[in-house]
Amino acid sequence: MNGVRIADLKNHLSEHLRRVRRGSAVTVFDRDSPIARLIPYEEAPGGLEVRPRRAGSLRPNEVPLPPPLALDRDVVDLLLEERQGDR
User: What is the pTM of this model?
Assistant: First the structure.
């Protein structure tokens, strides 16, 4: 395990980053406790794929909404009551 203390990391940051770039992981210590690990960056495989809409599927603005809830109280009153409970 390649370990480095915070002061040494600050003083020799470029050197440690070159080690990471070459493929090494560097563990950062605060006194004797490990607090972070610097690892080489890897691109996510494939990333986000945007697919075309399937034939026959609804557009987002065409999806039917569920019926409104039948409540005996006003929704705003319920919200205000919930927020007052946090104070």
Answer: 0.50
